[in-house]
C-alpha cells in the first residue's frame, strides 16, 4: 500500500524550494487538503516554525495546507490521522534522535506502509532506508540507534556526488565512504543525485527525475541505473 | 606533560604518505626507536596489516620502527609501554567503536596526558577533541558514545574545506554543518585545513603548517587564526 516519494534534495540549483517536484507532488497528494510536516531535521539549525513556513509557502502553490508536527499536542495522533506526511531535510542525526525521543519510528513506519502518502527529502529520505548509516551529515547529536524506517529494503545516499577528478582534496570521496560502509554492512546503497527521486508504489520502486543513479552493492563493482528503471528487486 | 601533534591529514596533494610531516615527526619522536600504530580507522576498509605496512614505510625514512596495535596480545600493555603512539585516519565511527570495544579510551587519554608522544591524523585527530561530533565521516558503525579523548578542550574538524562559491550542489557546506553542531553544543571547533596541524606541548596549543585555520565558536562569527598562533585559551 506504500505511496512514497524519496527525493535526493528539496531544492535543485537555480530553482525555489521543492519547485522541481511540485507537479509530482500535486499528483502524489491528490486527495490531501492538508499534510503534516516533520521539521525535526532543522537545516542550518532553523526553528521548527521557520522551517514549516518555508514548506507552507511551497505547498500553497498546489493548494495544500501544511501543519508542522510541532504544532500538535499529540504527535502520535497527528501522524496517525495525517492525510499526507512530509519529512524535510537537515541533519539526519537530529531527525532520528527526535523521532526516537518522541517514540515515532515504529508509528511512522506502519503509517507509511499502510498507505498514507509520504514525501522525504534528503534527511527525510535517509530515514526511509534500513539504517541512517549512509547519511552525509555531521553527528551533532547522539541518537539511540542508527536503525530507521525500512520503507525500502536498502539505504539511500542523498545528494550523491561523483568524484571530482580535478580535486586536490584528500578527504574521502562519497564512493570511498560507501565502500567503507560495505566492509561492515551488506545493505545495498542507492546514490541519488540531486534532482532524482524514488517512487514507491506498493511493492514497486522506480527511479525518477532527469538523472541516473549509482548503485552500490556489497562485493560488487558500483553501477549506474537509468531513470525510469525498476529497483524493486534491489535488496 | 602532553606532547601531541594533531594533523588535519596524513597526506597532502602531490606528496607521499606523511611526507610533509616527517621533519616534524623526527623531532617529535626524537627519543623513540619504535612507536605503536593504531590502525583501527581502516581508510577505504583496508586491513590492519595493510595499513600498518604503509605507516612502517613512511617511518622507516626517519629510522623509527612501527608496530601495529593489532600485533600485540595485550592492547592495554602495548599502549602503556609505548615509546610513542600514532593513530591514523580512516573512519572515525569505526575507530571510536574499536577503542571503546577494547576499553582503550580512558587508557589512551591518560597515557597521552602523561607525556607519551602522540600523533593523530584525520580520524586520529578527531579523537583528540572532546567529542567526535565534528567528524566528516559516514556513520558506518554505531559507537557506544561520541565522547572522545579530550586531549584538547575543543573539537577538530579535519580536512576543513572552504565553501566553493561556484558550486551548484545543494548538500550542506562544512560551515553549515558546524553551525548546526553549535545549535546543540557549545564546544569550539577548529577547522584544520589540509597541511595544518596543532602542536600540543604541555598546556600550550599552537597552530602549525602553511595555512591559517578557521575557528567556530558558539554564537560567534567564525574567524581565521594565523599559523603560529597560540590556541591554548580556546575552550
UniProtKB/TrEMBL annotation, chains A, B:
The keyword Hydrolase applies. GO terms for molecular function: dipeptidase activity. Keywords: Dipeptidase, Hydrolase, Protease, Serine protease. It comes from the Bacteria. Its EC number is 3.4.13.21. InterPro entries: Class_I_gatase-like, Peptidase_S51. PANTHER family: ALPHA-ASPARTYL DIPEPTIDASE, PROTEASE S51 ALPHA-ASPARTYL DIPEPTIDASE. Belongs to the peptidase S51 family. This is Dipeptidase PepE. It comes from Pseudofulvibacter geojedonensis. The lineage of its organism: Bacteria, Pseudomonadati, Bacteroidota, Flavobacteriia, Flavobacteriales.
